[in-house]
Amino acid sequence: MASRRLALNLHTALRSKAAINAVKRSKQSPLTRGLATPVSYGSKTESTTLSNGFTIATEHSPWAQTSTVGVWIDAGSRAETDKTNGTAHFLEHLAFKGTQKRTQQQLELEIENMGGHLNAYTSRENTVYYAKAFNNDVPAAVDILSDILQNSKLEPQAIERERDVILREQEEVDKQLEEVVFDHLHATAFQGQPLGRTILGPKENIETIKRDDLESYIKTNYTADRMVLVGAGGVPHEQLVELAEKYFSKLPAEAPNYSGKIVAEQKQKPEFIGSEVRIRDDTMASANIAIAVEGVSWNDEDYFTALVTQAIVGNWDRAMGNSAYLGSKLSSFVSQNNLANSFMSFSTSYSDTGLWGIYMVTPYLDRVDDLVHFTLREWSRLSSSVSNAEVERAKSQLKASLLLSLDGTTAVAEDIGRQIITTGRRLAPEEIERVVGAISEKDVMDFAKRKLWDRDVAISAVGSIEGLLPYDRIRNDMSRMLS
């Protein structure tokens, strides 16, 4: 005990002496804030492209002890045909089932031993494989990512096992009404086109997809010109470039000639079709409705204006205990008149188009027509009467949402990968804040006049929807003059 007390006293004395010396030094030079400096301050996105077209993009934070590395591929369910719809998602499942170098058990053990995290997901336009690990384990993580992307075995037994897994996953998705409504919204807005297909694919495809379909999809889409290796955290840009040279330099630069026609068809701009799909089920306790106009692409100059306009309409959910006075005029009106339990405005973007709209859930089945009517009246108002206070509130919410979401290396990697793969460059957080800050009420009204006023709508409705008015009546509300 005495020795511990002596050590503590000595430690305290040393700290006191150091503090005195620091004060003395401060008389000659000002104190600096070493450890208080934000880790991400001054970070920038660096990018390099290899000779085969493979891109590496990073944001280096020297003080971060972990890194997220991943490969973003410019191919998802949109890169499929009607016959092969579901292939991209199927491949995602098979990626972790063993490669030429590693069995499934070895793959899982290697990740666990490094304390890492390996994951993947598929969207309509992208497939992503990523890993989070300590900085020292980044080379091993990149090795694993390259292995599962280039050397997956795609064994017949694994394919058969995953069929059942994916079919069960589809059953679970079918129970999530929001997912169902949005899948139907895409299907009707972009009917007969690649963007209208679901990510999981129809049941008959899941049951019949063959190894040849999977290999063909890889040859067509897993090419260097459609891939970006992203790093965020403690991994330096130069290190990731060296790892890319080692593991990805042999990727083919582009798809074989035989698939060029297919790739070209995938890149055609989809046609938005004013239409509807209704699935009436009177046993359900609510009406679940999505209404959308054609939105904007990631590259569109109206991209951030669309997000601000969406934020003005806002979101509201009675179950979350949200006040009726959130600033959104629609939330106040819907709450006070008991028109719905929740609504969520959205602005979903793709490489060349998008959907801008609202998703509503209401148990008040005799007021469905009022809910839709007054929602579209609010859309009409945006074309002629938007206050500065509304716009400033929406801008603040949007900036907070966009910038606070960049919390952690995985979120930053996701932001870099999505932007580089879709637009070719990444907007820095400072740029986003500047662009959003410059949007005025005039910009919002101009956007609404061009994109909302008297535009065709796509409607997806599921549940007890007897009270939903016919399509032409709803369409007429898109050009109703405000009284």
From TrEMBL:
Cofactor list: Zn(2+)
Lineage: Eukaryota, Fungi, Dikarya, Ascomycota, Pezizomycotina
GO cellular component, one term: mitochondrial processing peptidase complex
GO molecular function, one term: metalloendopeptidase activity
Domain Peptidase M16 C-terminal residues, every copy: 209-398
Domain of life: Eukaryota
Protein name: mitochondrial processing peptidase
Domain Peptidase M16 N-terminal: 56-203
Family: Belongs to the peptidase M16 family.
Xref: InterPro entries: Metalloenz_LuxS/M16, MPP/UQCRC_Complex, Pept_M16_N, Pept_M16_Zn_BS, Peptidase_M16_C
Subcellular location: Mitochondrion
Major localization listed first in the record, in broad terms: mitochondrion
Cited function: Catalytic subunit of the essential mitochondrial processing protease (MPP), which cleaves the mitochondrial sequence off newly imported precursors proteins. Preferentially, cleaves after an arginine at position P2.
Matches recorded under Pfam families: Peptidase_M16, Peptidase_M16_C
Catalytic activity as recorded in UniProt: Release of N-terminal transit peptides from precursor proteins imported into the mitochondrion, typically with Arg in position P2
